[in-house]
Each structure stands twice: as C-alpha cells, then as structure tokens.
Amino acid sequence: MSRSTRLACVFASTLLAFSFAVGSTLPAQAEDTTDPRPTRPAASSASPQLAAPPVDHRVRTRPVGAASEHRSLDASRAVQSSRVSATADDPATEPSVYGHAWETYSGDGVEGITVRLWHSGSSGGDPVATAVTDAYGYYSLGVVPAGDYLLEFTGEGFIDQWWKNHNSGSWGATVITVTADGPGVEADAELDHLDTVSGTLTSSKGKPLAGRWITLFIWMDAGYWGELESFTTDSAGRFSFPELRPGSYAVDSEMPKGARLKAEAHYVSLLSFSGSKNAGLLSPWVLGSPSIGLEQKADVGPGKWKKASFSYQWLRDGVTIPKATKKTYTPGSADLHAQLQVRVTSHVGNYWVTATSPTSWPLLRSSVPQIRGTVAVGSEVTADAGAWESASVPSYQWYADGKAIVDATAQTFTLTTAQKGKRLTVKVSGQYLNFPVISRTSSATAKVATAGTPTVSGSAVVGSTLKATPGTWTKKTKLSYQWLRDGAVIRKATKSSYKLTAADAGTQISVRVTGKLSGYATVSMVSAPLAIPA
Length: 534
Hints:
There is one protein chain. The chain is mainly β and 534 residues long. It has four domains: 3-58 and 193-356, Immunoglobulin-like; 67-187, Immunoglobulins (Immunoglobulin-like), CATH 2.60.40; 370-441, Immunoglobulin-like (Sandwich); 455-531, Immunoglobulin-like, CATH 2.60.40.2700. Helices cover 4% and strands 37% of the residues. The chain is built from four helices and 39 strands. The strands form nine sheets. Strands 13-10-15-24-23-20-21 form a seven-stranded mixed beta sheet, with no helix packed on it. Strands 2, 3, 5, 6 and 7 form a five-stranded antiparallel beta sheet that branches. The radius of gyration is 34 Å and the shape is elongated.
C-alpha cells in the first residue's frame, strides 16, 4: 500500500468521518482567569484558515508480508513459526487456516493480534478456533473441520478487521472455504493503527491555558477540511483526540496573542501551519540504504517549508539515541539489525507539530570494498568486499574515472590500456533475502600506471655482472631497483646492475623495479628469475 493511500484517509462521507470522533469531552476544567474562555467555535464543514494539504507521493517499497522475518534476521525461525498447528503438521497441507499479520504503517509483523475463525452466517456463539500472532506476526489455527468461515483480526491499538474487508464489518468479509483433505488456506492481514493526537496550549509566558477550545480537522476525499471534534483544554492546558484512523489532520484554536499550540501524533500526518500560512504535511520518513555505516536522512514530508524550522530526534528500536538530533544520522555497530525512526517537530509561527516516522528496515552489515592488486596496465586487481550480512548475494561493477567499464562485473578485473591514467573504483552490491539492494563503493585508486616487465641480461656465472632492463613505464616515472636472491632482498644491491658473488651460486636471481610518479599508483614489477649454477 502506498504512503499516499495511508495518508489520504478516504472516507465515504462526512457522516462516516464524524462517526469516528470521541463522543465525550474532558472533565470540567479549571478556569483561566487571565483571559476569558472563548465561546465554542461553530461547527463547519470547512475551515477558511486551512489550505489543502500537499500530496505525498512516497511509496513504501518493502515487500508486503516480509518485514517480520527481517527484524531478527533469522528467516528460518520466522518461517518455522508459521508452521505450528494442533497436530504439529504443516498447515499448508492440512485443513487449516494460517497466515501473517503486519502493520500498514511500517510493514513490520505484529505480535499479539487475536485471530478468530467464525462459521459463515453464524450470528453468535463461540468462534470455531482462535490463535494469537507470534513475535513475527505469524499464526496458525490448527486443523479445523471442513466448512465455510469468516476470519477476524483484533488487537489493542489497531482497527478491527475481517479478512479481505479492510477496516469494515463482517457483512462484507470474504468467505474462507476449508476442505477436508486440505490444503490449508493462507489468510494474511494488513492492519492499520488507531492513533491519538494530543498536545498542549500555553500562553506567551509558557503558562497553561485551561478551558480553551481545540478543534481537530480531517482532510476529506471531497476536497475540504471537515471538523471532526472540539475539546477544551484541561487545567494543564492539555488536549487529546483518541482513536483516530489513518489520515491527514490539522489542529487549530482561537488563541490569545502569543499563545503556543503544540500537537503530536505517531501514526497519522499533521498539517504544519500558522493561520492561513500552510507549511506542509508533517509525515516523516527515513531515507537511506538499510546498512550500518550508510547515512540515513529524515524526510519531513511534502509541502513548502520555507518559513518552518525543524528539530529532530532519532530512535533505535523505539528508544531515543543520545545526541542524535540532526537531520541525518549515520548508524554504527550499536545499530546492527536495529530499526530506526525519526521524530520531527516543525515550528511555524505559534504552532508546533510533532510526528514520528515509520520504522526503517532493519540495518544490515556491509563494508566499504577495497581494491587489492597492482594498479597497472596488464595487472589483475581484485575487489575485497569485506564483511556483509550472511546470505547476501554480491555483484560487482568496476569504474574508471567514475564511468562504468563495460562487462567488468566480476570480482577480478585485468586492467587494459583503456584504463591508463584513470582512477579505478569498484562498487559492490549485495541483497539479503528481499531487502533493498545495498551498494558500497571503494575509494578511488591512484591513476593506473603503465609499468614494464623488467628483464635481466648477462652471464649466469659467479663473477659476471647482470643488467636490468625496466621495460616501458609512464613518462617521467622515477625508477628504483632492488635485486633479489631466491625472492629475498640482497643488501645494498639497489642499482640497475649487479655483480654475482659466491653467495649467489645455486640460487635464483631476479630484480624488482619500483616506479613512482605523482598522482599515479606506486608499482613494483619483478623480473623472471635467472638460475645461477652451483
């Protein structure tokens, strides 16, 4: 389901919207003697102070139903949890009903949802079977008699719903038919939260304003703001509008000069405005690839925020992260496999509005790749991916000066003259289960050098002098030499020639040439060994 669908809160009529309002006011409030209580604003179908909310085009890309098994990154356990029935058999092959419940807001599986199976057409009595979703949002009703059934999902803080009749009563629910010989019927549910918009009204000096009317508006599908309910503030200046369905809301009040209204919600979007100056629809979102080490960014929501200021607070698995109060947050090792949220407060004029984002994907392990090998034409280099989440499937793409090299998609790559003088990078992309793909790119190397293969000439006889020919190198490269005996350094043998000694008899002699040039990779090339007779 798209984010915009969840925020639009499409109602069939104004009457239906009003049916969700709370029917009672708060207890009698203390009188505010500093400023007389205003009369209750007249109910209306629209507010002249509020303009239409901006449209939110963001879409939740998490595959439906997959999120709960990602929370613990233990897919086998998650799948197993949906395979528990009264007979310990697989409900997919037994006459059973089983499935998965997740929340619309974040896509996470929901624990503790009560699932009841009712005979189709029954008007009372007890359910045929009852189950409660586990920590991953899975349930199984075990083996049930063959027949036609209706399936109900209920849970505290969520809107009751019947299978395939989202947020409505049993009269429109889809009938589930269970046959005696199976297979089982998989019945999943996407659940919407009920939410509360609450807040405070204070004077210009920060003192609570009691007995003030606070009005809640909801954006109607007919294209106007409908008044949902009005309450008066209590002695502490507080107000609350509970049991709200998903949608776009606005809170307003006839405030004394300098008064400040603060409103907060968790699962609905709030309009940020000051009088007729609409800033935008506060519906925070966490943007970024789900991996530690990669920056996450808070998207505050759609609208024109020119006159708005913001404050941020990041949360890890619902708990405040100390000092994480900027628009961006780069997760570290403490965030591995955790889920992030960001709580955003917008300030426009005397209106302060706070909303909290849905949870992010669980954060996976990934690393910045490194390039190993000699960065020179003709040499092979290798991408060292580093540590990634187990079961991630890696892919590779090599680049020269930021441009993809055609067909260079293996872990290793042999440099050609086409890369001469260019800087090399490699991008490693990995995907764990059906999470979004995570990509990490290495640091750029120095420029790819042209490096010759040195050769050794001369008589392989003790007492004779060998000479090194370095081959062709990038112009202006400064060369140095080191002679080797059986691969080990020969002390003080650092010239382009070397006189064989008695110690070289029966060994293999080679020369290592190292080239250095500013901006280029430092490259060392070793000649083929020359056998010296004993």
